[in-house]
């Protein structure tokens, strides 16, 4: 049986000859970074497609001293927000002619450093860090080594950062509960070592202070961002008598809020009849829970685009950019209270 010969590789020279243009003109027409809309360029691209030409973008990038790849470092992809964030980063990178690759690091700074070095060993053009610790040394090390990088969904106040305005978000969530008539309000934040946790708590405190409400310190709980952390916090807040419980809780992410819901169910506390609840991040599940969750929406697509631009267009100001969050009211926060309790 006669074996089929492999198809001949179509070169840029072949495309140029078939298009009736020079090699340099064909190269410019096919460069994904500067896609021309001229009739001549469209003709070259049409011929290239018909011939089956495939541009070696990797080789072209290497000749320019770049790989057109970006490394994204996240604690874990099992976290809904981190997974959604990476999807948006990948889309934003692709629209700018870059490829995004992800590595997970957990919460250990040593593991984070190791994961970052793994990405840098692959000659990425920059790093995007979604890891959360305020005491993280990695951004400082990257600045010292002049490695292009951006922080996403958090900031250390120095490195280029793209995030939501977490203080405004915490204020909006707590102000919503106050406007509904609640004064016995608890706040379950993320870990104290995160800029998101501290900023959302600061926003909540600001709203409480404006309303003349002195929060009970035992009702301000710093927890992790997992459902189990919310459940534990809910157990602490709801285990007492109805008179000793808060009537409203602001949970600093939707996972925490779902954990609080589970604890409330165990203690026979009805949401929203006996407890108003607000989450944060407006994850897709929040609107589809048996009791749809009021949540603070964060524009992840806008944040992702900003993070990519901070790397591919270095030196642009400001280096720290905050996107504005929006409160999305749903059933879990209930209706205005008839009394001030």
TrEMBL record:
<keyword id="KW-0238">DNA-binding</keyword>
<dbReference type="InterPro" id="IPR010982">
    <property type="entry name" value="Lambda_DNA-bd_dom_sf"/>
</dbReference>
<dbReference type="InterPro" id="IPR000843">
    <property type="entry name" value="HTH_LacI"/>
</dbReference>
<dbReference type="InterPro" id="IPR046335">
    <property type="entry name" value="LacI/GalR-like_sensor"/>
</dbReference>
<keyword id="KW-0804">Transcription</keyword>
<keyword id="KW-0805">Transcription regulation</keyword>
<feature type="domain" description="HTH lacI-type">
    <location>
        <begin position="10"/>
        <end position="64"/>
    </location>
</feature>
<protein>
    <submittedName>
        <fullName>LacI family transcriptional regulator</fullName>
    </submittedName>
</protein>
<dbReference type="InterPro" id="IPR028082">
    <property type="entry name" value="Peripla_BP_I"/>
</dbReference>
<keyword id="KW-0678">Repressor</keyword>
<dbReference type="Pfam" id="PF13377">
    <property type="entry name" value="Peripla_BP_3"/>
</dbReference>
<dbReference type="Pfam" id="PF00356">
    <property type="entry name" value="LacI"/>
</dbReference>
């Amino acid at each position: 049986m006669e074996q089929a010969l492999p198809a001949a590789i179509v070169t840029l020279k072949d495309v140029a000859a078939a298009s009736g243009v020079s090699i340099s003109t064909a190269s410019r027409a096919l460069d994904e970074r500067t896609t021309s809309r001229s009739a001549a360029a469209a003709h070259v691209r049409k011929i290239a497609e018909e011939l089956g030409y495939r541009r070696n973008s990797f080789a072209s990038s290497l000749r320019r001293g770049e790989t057109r790849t970006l490394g994204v470092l996240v604690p874990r992809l099992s976290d809904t927000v981190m997974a959604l964030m990476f999807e948006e980063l990948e889309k934003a990178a692709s629209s700018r002619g870059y490829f995004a690759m992800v590595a997970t690091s957990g919460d250990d700074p040593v593991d984070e450093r190791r994961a970052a070095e793994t990405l840098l060993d692959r000659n990425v053009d920059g790093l995007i860090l979604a890891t959360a610790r305020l005491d993280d040394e990695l951004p400082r090390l990257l600045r010292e080594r002049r490695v292009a990088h951006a922080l996403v969904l958090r900031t250390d106040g120095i490195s280029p950062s793209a995030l939501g305005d977490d203080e405004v978000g915490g204020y909006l969530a707590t102000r919503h509960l106050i406007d509904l008539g609640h004064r016995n309000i608890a706040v379950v934040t993320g870990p104290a070592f995160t800029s998101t946790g501290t900023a959302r708590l600061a926003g909540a405190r600001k709203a409480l202070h404006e309303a003349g409400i002195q929060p009970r310190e035992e009702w301000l709980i710093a927890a992790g961002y997992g459902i189990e952390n919310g459940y534990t916090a809910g157990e602490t807040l709801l285990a007492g008598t109805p008179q000793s419980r808060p009537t409203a809780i602001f949970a600093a992410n939707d996972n925490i809020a779902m954990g609080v819901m589970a604890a409330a169910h165990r203690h026979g506390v009805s949401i929203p009849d006996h407890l108003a609840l607000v989450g944060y991040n407006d994850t897709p599940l929040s609107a589809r829970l048996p009791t749809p969750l009021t949540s603070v929406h964060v524009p992840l697509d806008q944040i992702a685009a900003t993070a990519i631009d901070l790397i591919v267009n270095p030196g642009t100001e400001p280096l720290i950019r905050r996107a504005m969050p929006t409160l999305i009211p749903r059933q879990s926060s209930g209706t205005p209270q008839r009394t001030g309790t």
